[in-house]
Amino acid sequence: MSQDNLAKLECTECHSINYHSHRNKKMVKERLELKKYCQKCKNHTQHKETK
Q1: Residue 16: closest CA among 5, 50, 32, 30
Q2: Total domain count for the chain?
Q3: According to the model, what pLDDT value does residue 1 have?
Q4: What is the Cα–Cα distance from 49 to 17, expressed in whole angstroms?
Q5: Range of 1's domain?
Q6: What's the CA gap between 45 and 47, in Å, rounded?
Q7: Cβ(28)–Cβ(42) under 8 Å?
Q8: Structure confidence by residue, pLDDT tens digits, 5-38
Q9: CA–CA separation, 11 vs 3, rounded Å?
Q10: Confidence band (pLDDT; 50, 70, 90) for 4?
Q11: Does residue 16 form part of some domain?
Q12: According to DSSP H, which parts of the chain are helical?
């Protein structure tokens, strides 16, 4: 996975970085928002892409 397409996903509730994903920055201009399982919250929460 190349570093320029790497995106860190952060939990919106506890602000911990739980997941890494990749996206095509030329095709998708806005930041990723996915509903993922947070291990610290022990719940499915919204995760947003950080820098």
Answers
A1: 50
A2: 1
A3: 58
A4: 9
A5: 1-28
A6: 6
A7: no
A8: 889 999 999 999 999 988 888 888 899 999 999 9
A9: 21
A10: confident
A11: yes
A12: none
